[in-house]
Amino acid sequence: MAARHGARVVIGDIDLAGGHAAVAEAKEAGLEIDFAPLDLTDSSAIDAFVSAVGERVEVIDGLVNGAGWDAIQPFLENPPEIWDRIIAINLMGAIRLTRGVLSPMVAAGRGKIVNISSDAGRVGSTGETVYAAAKGGLIAFTKSLAREMARYRINVNCVCPGPTDTPLFRRQPERIKEALTRAIPFRRIAQPAEIAEAVLFFLSDRANYITGQVLSVSGGLTMAD
Question: What is the pTM of this model?
Fold first, then answer.
């Protein structure tokens, strides 16, 4: 969606086939999108991605930390290796990638960072305890970084989606999907484009005086202060 508004976009993903497919689809639509491999659990891969982005663009104007992964399961049944992976992808990956792009943003004296957290990080979620902890950490990271980066005119904000029609959501049992849909006041699951609209707002000039904020996009499921 950012590319449709004239942005030069570089996608990073561990899914190589999906990344190249996204580039091909964008080119057919006349959009300028590049792809570079990115594994958020590997610090050297993050460094390589940042270098690849630097070779493609002169200035990094914005970063969207949009990766997420979870395994829905009661906490007492979670093996420690699942905790490590959840935290590595949902929290530490975003922290490391952000650190990688901050120096050029500081040098330029501008930039927009948007972290994709989750309403699970605001109010908790049964079966997603460690995931909620990681996403809650990302919210705290957003607020603290916003304070530090304000002097450099870098905005840092956070979008918290509710249940959204993604491949991860589609893999859930029907009973869970139905229960979530009933719990949402709008009685439907969000479409990815609706989350993207909120991200695009925080990346735009309309949000120049907004930083350190958390916006839920959940159809009213979570009405948190």
Answer: 0.92
